[in-house]
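Researcher: Here's my situation. A collaborator sent me these components and asked whether they could plausibly form a single complex. I don't have experimental data yet, so a predicted model of the whole assembly would be a useful starting point for our discussion.
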Amino acid sequence: MRLHTAPRPWRQAAAGYGFVGPALVILGAFLLYPIVYSLWLSFHEWDGYTPHWGPFVGLENYRALADDEVFWRAMLNSIVFVVVRTPLEVSLGFLLALLLNRRLAARSLMRTLFFVPVVMSLIVVTIIFQRVYEPNTGLLNTFLRGIGLGAWAHPWLGDPATALPAVIAVSVWKNVGFSLVILLAGLQSLPHDVLEAARVDGANAWQLTFRMITPLMRPILALTALLSIIGGLKVFDLIFIMTRGGPTYSTEVLATMLYREAFELNHMGVASAIAVILVAVVLSIARVQAFVLPESQEWGTG
Amino acid sequence: MKDLPRCQAHDESRPRMSRRAVLRLGLAAASVPPVLLRSRTATAQIGGAQPTAPPTAPAAELKNPVELKAPKVKASSPTTLSFWHYAGFHVDVQKFIAEEYKRRYDPNLSLEITAYPGLNEQRVGVKSALAAQSPTPDIIGVEPGAYAVDVYTSGSVLDFTKVFAEDPEFQRGFWPNALELLTINGTVVSVPVVTNTVIVYYNRGLFREHGLQVPDTVADLKKLGAALNAKGITPVAYAAGEDRNHPIFPYYTYVGGIKADKLMREADLGLKPWTSPELVAGADFVEMMAKSNLYAKGPLGIKQPDAIQILATGKSAMLWGGQWMRRSIRAALPAGFDLGMFPFPAVVPGGHKPVLSSVGITLTVNARSKYPDLAFEMIKALTGAWGKIEYTRNLGLSPNGPISTEAIAYQMQSLKDPLYPEFLKLQPTGTTRVLFTPAVEEAMTQGMQALITGQKTAKAVMESVEAVSRKLGLRKFRTG
């Protein structure tokens, strides 16, 4: 009778590499290589048309950005976008999830309705909201005039003071359904015995929500917030289509500035420097995950 | 190979109709309502007069009065040329011309057209292809201005020097002012398929109803605006929120109106300051227009479809926009809407009426194309004497050069647009609306937005544009 022996270590390793190899190649080609390429490019001058890079300029592109008030404006707008959008998106998503976690008559329908904006084409959403915000015949101003609040009618996207909030509102509307779905899934996986015990101990709905459910949901809330922050920092298409960063750079964010520098002003080196900064910021925030989210979550049972 | 006539010339081999008969045919095809406008005599800056077909009545089916010219070079084996551009609504007519060319002269040659959804997407694709030294696309659609400068100065595209030397007639078929916009470092780097103008559309019925007159000067326009505002009607819908150079339209208009185009061009190239009195006056004009209650509310929040909607719903009496909007406007207007157009009023007393003019997509050849000669022949088919008539007959945009009265009558059979001849009259009078230096164009766009929103003064805006221009130093290219 032949004895079963453990496979030799090198064979085990080869099998492992064989399985992850294709994924590593794809990651390397389409993620790591472009990141390293961008980093290298950020130290060069290049117009993007000629086949060869221009001269090595060291940190000049970064210095140019540091001196560029548009860059700081874009950085500030990106931060504002995230700081305003994320709490709104997560808190609204959480409220809706709490609501839809209850036994409601049209729960499935409402869940679907809240998720519809997530699956809608962004182009369609932006075109709809451009018309909604249009100052003269737009839905919002027409509605305001209709209910006697004509004084509040405003050129929402045409005024630098309101353009960014208007764009953020669209972003929240578009993405709140995504937060809702994640948080609802989290709520439904909470341990019923713990919640039941709390109820038996006399906890009212308020206490149950804020003393029990919210702490238990902390990892899911953190994950949702993290996804929203990263999505917010990378926002491009919504702003590019709605305002192209205007008027007067009032909605310019890092991603739209990157596009402008790369493809309109032909400063590929500067654009790469923005990309490197953006990646660094996103990666730093993603690392927060390690501190905020434990590797595994075990629902305590007392 | 038979040397076929240019568009303006008559083909002697064909049965000729009398001029009078042709005019009658064109008239009825056009179904033009009584023209209320008195004739415009905008001073031609560059270019000649464009004959137009007066309104008349159709009798027989007319044909394109010129022939598609045979190519000097043909494909020796099945060959496909690739062509990337960004104007989807041009594809049908491009396919038609390419098929006709294939059928008549070069059965081996096919044209594969890729129409990107917009200029930005196409430019990114082209940039990537050129940087990768790709021979595809063979034919590239570029915009006049910075885009054309970028592709040419990087050595990525070929110029038309040889083509024009071999076929001077082809060169003469274009409006000189259109080719001037595409001349970089002394050579023409691309050729336009069409031209178009920026004018003022107006609700003729509403003007009639309220006894209003088309304004001759900006002072008249302001009075007209006040009268309309008093009646609760917004004077002008202006899509300043549209991207590209829409926010700069008023500035170009003023500069064209005082004939300071050359000065603006020199400033664009860093040869003259942007802070000269004439160029600052342009910014003053933009500010004045924004403050004069002429525009529909929040112009920077208005895109082209919004502006069309404002006009079509009767909320505004006028729309300041481009010839390219004509079809969308027609589609949005309710039945019975009497649409008229006029060139922007004179910006200074006694001055001429400035019409912004530009070329639409322009065509050039990839320097690494495997079939440059075939690509140039295809461009000649698309933009030459026969092609331009077919092209604009389908789109209703203005041709890239003068065409004959017979050709206009032929086009009007299917165009059904009484305004088309009006556009043709204005095209040669056009003033430029192109900046060549990307950073300057960007500074101007932001500056004009700041003027419209009242964030900056005219002087401050032009100083910031000048600062950007000075930082760039002398440009590495020359234009015109």
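Model: Some features of this prediction you could bring to your collaborator: Chain A has one domain: 69-292. The mean pLDDT of chain A is 89.
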